[in-house]
Design a protein that fits this description.
The complex is a heterodimer of chains A (about 230) and B (about 70). Chain A has 11 helices and 4 strands, in the order ββααααββααααααα. By secondary structure, chain A is mainly alpha-helical. Chain A folds into 2 domains: about 100 residues, no CATH class; about 120 residues, no CATH class. A two-stranded antiparallel sheet of chain A has the order 1-2. Chain A has a two-stranded antiparallel ribbon with strand order 3-4. Chain B is flat and about 45 Å long. The model of chain B has no long low-confidence stretch (mean pLDDT about 95). The interface between A and B is medium-sized, with 15 and 13 residues.
């Protein structure tokens, strides 16, 4: 974690930015993916958890430039994560550890059917855009769909409660707190290997890779002072 | 025929259609079905499909004999 105290128009502001992918949550990645026309300050806000309004009060905008190396490093790490199929053996969720690799089936039936619907919906959206013949070349499930799928996968085994579709959907809020390095490989597994879906080569992570490449280019080339104002 | 009658209007209910069908429309049984192992549900769905196909063929044979 990179920490820097910045002078603001109202005093001082401690900004902490992750310098390793394992410090980023799935929720943060979703926020990055869903943000349209993201500025530098938006990215720093999402990654640090500090509201944009507070960051806008930083006196010298070039102070924020110190975080560009961190963002560049993260973009490199995320590329490695996308290219990896390695699943975590276990994950920590709600202060407890849950084994993953030894149990990769989505149960019970309600969770299975809901997860299948989420995947089917993502495929359907992709077909609408790219057509029946080409959709597989462009299939990029959203991270929001990943979090919803994982909520159904984890709900019963984490809480120990019977399956409830409403509560499982609400469990997405806990899933968003997962480390992106743990959550994404599991979601990727289900999108590529799920029953009745043949294992296909999909550019699952390309959209985010592009996003991070854009960020990388943006951080290096743009003047922070101009993007803040 | 089913399309004309508006079967697509059920699509918005997604997998609840399956749950409703398996519970014979009894909402009090939905949670029980949702908490069953998926393999059991799949077996039942396959059984229903096999039964429907058998009934259709059987009806066709009976009609052909008349």
């Amino acid at each position: 974690m990179i920490e820097k105290t910045l002078k603001t128009t109202t005093g001082k502001l401690l900004v902490k930015l992750p310098d390793h992918l394992s410090e980023i949550t799935l929720g943060q990645m979703i926020a990055l993916q869903e943000k349209k026309e993201m500025t530098d300050i938006d990215a720093i806000s999402i990654l640090s958890g500090i509201p944009v309004a507070h960051l806008a009060n930083v006196k010298d905008a070039s102070d924020l430039l110190a975080f560009s190396d961190s963002i560049l490093l993260l973009s490199q790490q995320i590329t490695q994560l996308y290219n990896s199929d390695a699943l975590p053996k276990e994950i920590t969720i709600l202060s407890g550890k849950v084994k993953v690799i030894s149990n990769l089936s989505i149960e019970p039936a309600g969770a299975f059917m809901a997860a299948r619907e989420i995947i089917a919906e993502e495929i359907s959206q992709c077909i609408k855009i790219y057509g029946e013949e080409n959709w597989q070349n462009y299939f990029n499930p959203s991270l929001k769909a990943c979090s919803q799928l994982l909520a159904h996968y984890f709900y019963c085994r984490v809480t120990g409660k019977p399956y409830n579709d409403y509560e499982a959907e609400a469990f997405t809020s806990e899933i968003k707190k997962l480390r992106v390095t743990e959550a994404l490989p599991i979601a990727k597994h289900f999108f590529t290997c799920y029953p009745s879906l043949s294992k296909q080569k999909i550019s699952f992570w390309h959209r985010l890779q592009q996003l991070w490449r854009k960020r990388q280019a943006s951080v290096l080339s743009k003047s922070l002072s101009t993007s803040i104002r | 025929m089913e399309k004309k009658a508006g079967i697509r209007s059920f699509e918005k209910f997604k997998y609840i259609n399956t749950v409703n069908s398996l519970s014979a429309g009894d909402i009090t049984k939905w949670d029980t079905i949702l908490n069953m192992p998926y393999e059991r549900i799949l077996t039942k769905l396959l059984l229903n499909k096999t039964e429907a196909e058998y009934q259709r063929r059987y009806s066709e044979l009976i009609q052909a004999q008349r």
